[in-house]
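Help! Submission page says 'invalid entity' but I think these are all valid:
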Amino acid sequence: MKKITVLVIALVMIFALPVSAQEYDLDGEVTQKLNYLDNSETIEGLTELNLEFSKNFGFDKSIYLNPVFKLNYDENSEYDFLKEVYFDYYLENTDLRVGRQIIDWGSAYELNPTDVVNPRDFTAKDPTSAELGVTSLKGDYYFDYQTSLTGVVVGQHRPSPIPSALEGMVDKTTKGMIANSVYDGIYSKLIEKGSKEISAVETANNITPQIMNNNFTINDPEKREMNDITDPEISLKFTRRNFKGYDLSVNYFKGYGDIPLIISDYNQVQKDLKPIIESYLLAEKDPTAKTSKETISLDFGYKETQSIGFSGRGSLADIGVWTEINYNQNEDDEKKLDLVIGGDYTFENNFYTVVQLFHRNYKDYKINDILKNNDKDKLLTDENYLILHGELPFRSIHTLKTDLIADVEGEGYMINPAAEFSLGNDYNLNVGAVVMDDENSEEDFSTLNMLAEEKAYFEFTWNF
Amino acid sequence: MKKIKLMLTFLVISTFVIGGLGTAVMAEDMTGEDILEKVDEKMDSETRDFVLDMTIVNENGQERDRKITIKTKGENKGLVKFLEPGDVKDTALLTVEENDEENMWLYLPALGNVKKIASHNKNGNFMGTDFTYNDIDMVGGSNYEDDYDSKLVGEEEIRGNMCYKLSTTPTKESINYSEMKMWVRKDDYMPLKLEFYDEDGELHKIMTNKNYRDIDSHITPEEIVMENVQKGTKTVLKLSEVKYNIELNDKIFTTRYLTRN
């Protein structure tokens, strides 16, 4: 009810202040969404009012506010009432922006490995375009019209919200991983002590659940945000435009990962586990012996990380081409490489098309090594996607669009056909569907799995 | 004294007669290239700042209105920005020509950053209009002489005006018309009509410039219509505000300024 009141007040303000509106720049968009969610077989209705307010103070200063009012939004999703709010100050060769802001870097289509400043909201309905604002100071220094250096300082790390289903999947995988380790520890200890194989298996099967229930805690997802993250995050980007026809940039980032990973030392976990296993084995023989009450805590956190990236965009034989590469290494020397290569072309009938390849490689990830020791599949596997986008105007004012993301190894795809109808100068209707075929969606921590959910949607938008 | 007056009268008359004959001979001898040069010269301005009301009419007669601003400086710098409606507001296109190479950058507010446009995409429709990126660049300020080779093929009357009829072919690979025919008013070298032919030689689009009037000593069309005869659609541009030779800082024509409101 409170949200409806705020929405009504905002609408009244918009229409009751035409005089004020002349002094400022006020634009807005009302969107009514209807989504049919295939997984839950439910229909959800979402109403969103997006206001953009800006005011210039002379030629060198301005403010910008982007409040967003949402009704019926998913309580589990992240929602900023003030999506962006910042102050701009323009000097002779320098632009400064301070406040909550979204900074878009990169030259590729939709997936931008070098877009490192803002966290992506994986709980959003369209995570490819949903970034969350961060309170930061951004400075752009222009050496000349084509060369610039950008620096961003983010005061407080903001993680990516991830869907609860995926969090649950991580919990399940982690517990499974530890249970395997406990089982293996008990089994090998019994074999070492001369037990027969059948007996060792039976005892390990019996004791493992007890240890898992009594001696392990996995941090509550709510507590996963590490309180000791106090250092600011720093991003730098050097840009040179139109260098032999190409726009080029290199960037550097020092901060924290957006997705929580296990930060506990696995070797220490193994050491701590040994006396616990011993106590349970002893209790098996001697019912009067007490089992260990020690608790091993398995912690998740946002690891300190650094990355360097490169982005380029230009033309090659009339075809638009681009590439983005980002190499990331965290405090535990876990490495991630993202590479995107793509191109676009407009045919004579105005059919605009994009073809793009995305490659992600994980190296030395602790969780993968642990699973490897247990002969399990990796949790974080290399990813190779083909991304296709097509866009065809029809009747001049409407557009047909299709996006396809397909796993090159044939392990799944997502297709999103949509039609955008212009109903008037200020009215648009967007109808579409997201269809997925991800065979490993229940266990897969892949980008594809993070990006979308199956749905049919209907969006009506009014701009004013 | 009488002789001197007679001599002076003779000289004056001779000057006008010879001068007049000379002009007549010059006009008769003009080539397509000369006429195109005259067109560019007549339309030349150090800077331009236009606000235009744009109406897109599709094959069903449905109309959509836009408001755009076009700023140009010299022949090499242009900036097009959408002012209305809200869903395309602040979308901006920057064109800068350097070393005979035309570079274009597009800013889409929804994407939040500036992206370079590939040369072939410049022949795509600009934001749903019947103008390509190249065409819209031409509206901001002609540079026909550089972009086209021209041949005078005759004279024809267009809307009661005697015109030179030119047949031109693009000199740049980035322009994918096979031919452009142009009707240039003989009185003042204003292009009244342009026909664009596709790569198969078929008539593709017709651009009509209407209601020329003198604004700050520049003859300017108040209405430009681009009609796609193959699709049955058209885009109408109506001049709302015009300023010539005003101070436009070079900084406006940089990617730095594309993102500013």
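Support: the input was valid. A stray whitespace character was the problem, and the output above is from the cleaned input. Chain B touches chain A through 46 residues (CB under 8 Å).
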